[in-house]
Recover the amino acids of this structure.
Protein backbone atom coordinates (compact mmCIF):
# COMPACT_ATOMS: atom_id res chain seq x y z
CA UNK A 1 0.00 0.00 0.00
CA UNK A 2 1.37 3.40 -0.98
CA UNK A 3 1.75 6.30 1.44
CA UNK A 4 1.31 8.78 -1.40
CA UNK A 5 -1.74 10.95 -1.04
CA UNK A 6 -2.99 13.87 -3.06
CA UNK A 7 -1.71 17.26 -2.03
CA UNK A 8 -4.65 19.24 -0.55
CA UNK A 9 -3.66 22.24 -2.68
CA UNK A 10 -3.80 20.52 -6.04
CA UNK A 11 -0.11 19.60 -6.21
CA UNK A 12 1.42 16.29 -7.18
CA UNK A 13 0.21 13.14 -5.42
CA UNK A 14 3.65 12.58 -3.90
CA UNK A 15 2.55 13.93 -0.54
CA UNK A 16 4.93 16.85 -0.99
CA UNK A 17 3.64 20.38 -1.17
CA UNK A 18 5.08 22.47 -4.03
CA UNK A 19 7.33 25.32 -2.89
CA UNK A 20 4.98 27.89 -4.44
CA UNK A 21 2.16 26.51 -2.31
CA UNK A 22 4.35 26.54 0.80
CA UNK A 23 5.20 30.21 0.13
CA UNK A 24 1.52 31.00 -0.38
CA UNK A 25 0.62 29.22 2.85
CA UNK A 26 3.28 31.19 4.72
CA UNK A 27 1.90 34.43 3.27
CA UNK A 28 -1.66 33.53 4.29
CA UNK A 29 -0.56 32.48 7.78
CA UNK A 30 1.36 35.73 8.24
CA UNK A 31 -1.61 37.81 7.07
CA UNK A 32 -3.96 35.98 9.46
CA UNK A 33 -1.46 36.53 12.27
CA UNK A 34 -1.07 40.23 11.43
CA UNK A 35 -4.79 40.77 11.88
CA UNK A 36 -5.43 38.49 14.86
CA UNK A 37 -6.92 40.32 17.84
CA UNK A 38 -5.21 37.94 20.26
CA UNK A 39 -1.77 38.76 18.87
CA UNK A 40 0.33 41.27 20.83
CA UNK A 41 1.47 44.36 18.91
CA UNK A 42 5.01 43.03 18.39
CA UNK A 43 3.58 39.84 16.88
CA UNK A 44 1.30 41.73 14.50
CA UNK A 45 4.21 43.96 13.46
CA UNK A 46 6.48 40.98 12.83
CA UNK A 47 3.79 39.21 10.81
CA UNK A 48 3.06 42.33 8.75
CA UNK A 49 6.76 42.74 7.95
CA UNK A 50 6.78 39.15 6.73
CA UNK A 51 3.72 39.80 4.53
CA UNK A 52 5.41 42.89 3.08
CA UNK A 53 8.68 41.06 2.41
CA UNK A 54 6.99 38.07 0.76
CA UNK A 55 4.89 40.31 -1.48
CA UNK A 56 7.97 42.38 -2.39
CA UNK A 57 9.81 39.18 -3.32
CA UNK A 58 6.90 38.11 -5.52
CA UNK A 59 6.76 41.55 -7.17
CA UNK A 60 10.50 41.43 -7.93
CA UNK A 61 9.83 38.22 -9.84
CA UNK A 62 7.06 39.65 -11.98
CA UNK A 63 3.93 39.24 -9.86
CA UNK A 64 1.97 42.31 -10.92
CA UNK A 65 -0.93 41.90 -8.48
CA UNK A 66 0.98 42.34 -5.20
CA UNK A 67 -0.95 45.48 -4.24
CA UNK A 68 -4.28 43.85 -5.04
CA UNK A 69 -3.35 40.73 -3.08
CA UNK A 70 -2.23 42.82 -0.08
CA UNK A 71 -5.62 44.57 -0.12
CA UNK A 72 -7.50 41.27 -0.36
CA UNK A 73 -5.49 39.82 2.51
CA UNK A 74 -6.31 42.75 4.78
CA UNK A 75 -10.02 42.94 3.91
CA UNK A 76 -11.13 39.37 3.19
CA UNK A 77 -8.90 36.79 4.85
CA UNK A 78 -11.27 33.91 4.28
CA UNK A 79 -11.68 34.22 0.52
CA UNK A 80 -10.79 30.99 -1.25
CA UNK A 81 -9.41 33.01 -4.14
CA UNK A 82 -6.62 34.29 -1.88
CA UNK A 83 -4.89 30.89 -1.86
CA UNK A 84 -4.94 30.70 -5.65
CA UNK A 85 -3.71 34.27 -6.06
CA UNK A 86 -1.05 33.80 -3.37
CA UNK A 87 0.13 30.57 -5.01
CA UNK A 88 0.38 32.41 -8.32
CA UNK A 89 2.49 35.06 -6.58
CA UNK A 90 5.15 32.45 -5.76
CA UNK A 91 4.97 30.43 -8.96
CA UNK A 92 7.88 32.23 -10.66
CA UNK A 93 10.16 32.71 -7.67
CA UNK A 94 13.18 30.42 -7.87
CA UNK A 95 13.07 27.88 -5.05
CA UNK A 96 16.49 28.91 -3.64
CA UNK A 97 15.33 32.52 -3.23
CA UNK A 98 12.16 31.55 -1.39
CA UNK A 99 14.12 29.15 0.79
CA UNK A 100 16.57 31.96 1.67
CA UNK A 101 13.66 34.00 3.00
CA UNK A 102 12.38 31.05 5.01
CA UNK A 103 15.82 30.35 6.48
CA UNK A 104 16.27 34.02 7.36
CA UNK A 105 12.93 33.96 9.17
CA UNK A 106 14.01 30.92 11.12
CA UNK A 107 17.29 32.59 12.06
CA UNK A 108 15.47 35.79 13.07
CA UNK A 109 17.86 37.80 10.93
CA UNK A 110 15.00 38.57 8.59
CA UNK A 111 13.28 41.24 10.64
CA UNK A 112 16.22 42.54 12.59
CA UNK A 113 14.31 41.92 15.82
CA UNK A 114 15.76 40.20 18.85
CA UNK A 115 14.74 36.65 19.53
CA UNK A 116 12.27 36.09 22.35
CA UNK A 117 15.14 34.97 24.57
CA UNK A 118 16.81 38.38 24.21
CA UNK A 119 13.73 40.54 24.69
CA UNK A 120 11.74 40.18 27.92
CA UNK A 121 8.71 41.81 26.25
CA UNK A 122 8.47 38.75 24.01
CA UNK A 123 8.40 36.25 26.84
CA UNK A 124 5.12 34.39 27.23
CA UNK A 125 2.83 35.52 30.01
CA UNK A 126 3.02 33.46 33.20
CA UNK A 127 0.42 30.72 33.51
CA UNK A 128 -2.67 31.55 35.50
CA UNK A 129 -3.52 29.47 38.52
Amino acid sequence: MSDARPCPYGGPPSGRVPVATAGASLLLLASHTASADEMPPWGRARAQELVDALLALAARHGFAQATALREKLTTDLRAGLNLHLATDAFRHIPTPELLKVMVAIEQRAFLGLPSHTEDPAMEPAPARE
About this structure: The helical segments are 19-34, 41-60, 66-75, 80-90, 95-106. The chain has one domain: 19-109.
